[in-house]
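for the recovery benchmark. C-alpha cells below, seq after
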C-alpha cells in the first residue's frame, strides 16, 4: 500500500528511482514522474491505464525553468505566465528534444504548468528535472482532490502520496494554445475565461472531441462516476421520489428527491466553492449505491463553464 505523508525527501527518493508519486496541486492530485525519464513516463501510462494518445502535462517551479525544455515562449504566453503562473493555467509551447514524443503523444508542443501549491513547488524546486503528471485517477474516472482519493484507487500501484490536503480549486487547469497568432482555449478549467480575456483580449474556445488532433484525450465521456449520471432535465418526474435516486445540485435541493439523497455544491451560489466540491461530491454520491444520480448545469459564466464541461462529460456514456 502507498504511504501517505508530507515528507518531500521520501517523494524525491521515489522519483529519483524513476517511480511515480501522488502530487498535490491546487487543481487536482497528479500522478507524477520524471518528465525526462522514459521509464517513469511509461510507468505513469501503465498505472493510470491511460492510452498513449493522451499527452501529459509537464510541471515545473518557475518560468525560467520552463526554458530548459521549450524552444520559445510567445509574447502572449509570457503575459499570461506573468499573471497566472503559478496557477491553474497550462500553456502549450514548442518542445525541445529533451521532452520525448511519449510525453506529448507525438505533438510538437508540450503542455506546461506551474502548480500553485506550496508542497508541490517545494518538491519541484528540489528536483533537477520537471515532473510529468496527469490526474491521479484511473483513466476516465473522476479526478482526485485529496490524497485519500488517490490512495483509494491507485494505492496499490503508488509507493508514496504527498499529502497536501484538499485541492483548493478542485477542477483541472485551463489549457491554452497559440496557433497562427490566435489564442485558443483547448480545455476550460480552473482559470475562468473572463480572467484570461482581461489580460490578452478575446480568445477562441475550441469545443473538444476525441477526433480533435490539437487536444487529444479530450474525450466526450470523462470524469465519470460508476453510477450513471444524468441531467435532471432528461428525467421522468415519477422516477424521482424513490430511495434509489441521488441528486447533485448547485444551491437548492430538488423538491422531488428526498433531501438525504442530495448534495449541494454551494448553498451560497459560489462557483469557486462549487468547483472545489464537484469531484469530491460526485465520489460521495457514487459510493452510496444509487441506481442513478441526477444533476443540473450551473450558470454558464466564470468557473461555471468549466464545471458544466465536466458535468456534461460525466453524463455522457459514449
Ligand atoms: P490531465 O493531466 O489528466 O488533466 O490531462 C491532460 C490533458 O492535457 C490531455 O488530456 C490533453 O487534452 C491536454 N494536453 C496535454 N499535453 C498536450 C499537448 N502537448 N497538446 C495538446 N493538448 C495537450
Ligand atoms: Mg485527467
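predicted aa per position
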Amino acid at each position: 500500500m502507498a504511504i501517505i505523508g508530507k515528507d518531500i525527501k521520501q517523494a524525491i527518493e521515489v522519483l529519483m528511482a524513476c517511480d511515480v508519486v501522488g502530487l498535490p496541486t491546487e487543481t487536482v492530485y497528479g500522478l507524477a514522474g520524471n518528465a525526462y525519464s522514459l521509464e517513469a513516463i511509461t510507468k505513469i501510462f501503465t498505472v493510470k491505464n491511460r492510452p498513449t494518445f493522451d499527452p501529459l502535462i509537464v510541471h515545473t517551479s518557475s518560468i525560467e525553468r520552463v526554458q530548459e525544455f521549450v524552444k520559445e515562449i510567445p509574447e502572449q504566453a509570457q503575459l499570461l505566465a506573468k499573471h497566472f503562473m503559478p496557477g491553474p493555467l497550462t500553456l502549450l509551447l514548442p518542445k525541445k528534444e529533451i521532452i520525448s514524443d511519449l510525453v506529448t503523444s507525438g505533438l510538437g508542443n508540450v503542455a506546461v504548468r506551474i502548480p500553485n501549491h506550496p508542497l508541490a513547488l517545494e518538491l519541484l524546486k528540489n528536483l533537477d528535472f520537471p515532473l510529468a503528471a496527469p490526474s491521479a485517477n484511473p483513466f476516465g474516472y473522476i479526478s482526485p482532490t485529496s490524497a485519500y482519493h488517490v490512495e483509494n484507487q491507485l494505492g496499490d500501484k503508488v509507493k508514496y502520496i504527498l499529502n497536501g490536503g484538499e485541492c483548493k480549486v478542485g477542477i483541472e487547469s485551463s489549457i491554452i494554445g497559440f496557433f497562427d497568432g490566435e489564442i485558443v482555449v483547448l480545455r476550460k478549467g480552473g482559470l475562468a475565461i473572463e480572467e484570461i480575456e482581461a489580460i490578452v483580449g478575446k480568445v477562441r474556445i475550441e469545443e473538444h472531441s476525441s477526433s480533435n488532433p490539437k487536444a487529444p484525450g479530450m474525450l466526450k465521456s470523462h470524469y465519470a462516476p460508476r453510477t450513471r449520471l444524468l441531467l435532471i432535465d432528461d428525467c421522468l418526474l415519477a422516477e424521482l421520489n424513490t430511495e434509489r435516486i441521488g441528486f447533485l445540485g448547485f444551491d437548492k435541493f430538488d423538491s422531488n428527491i428526498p433531501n438525504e439523497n442530495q448534495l449541494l455544491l454551494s448553498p451560497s451560489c459560489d462557483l469557486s466553492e462549487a468547483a472545489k466540491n464537484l469531484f469530491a461530491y460526485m465520489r460521495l454520491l457514487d459510493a452510496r449505491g444509487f441506481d442513478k444520480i441526477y444533476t443540473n448545469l450551473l450558470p454558464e459564466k466564470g468557473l461555471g463553464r468549466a464545471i458544466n464541461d465536466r458535468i456534461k462529460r460525466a453524463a455522457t456514456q459514449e
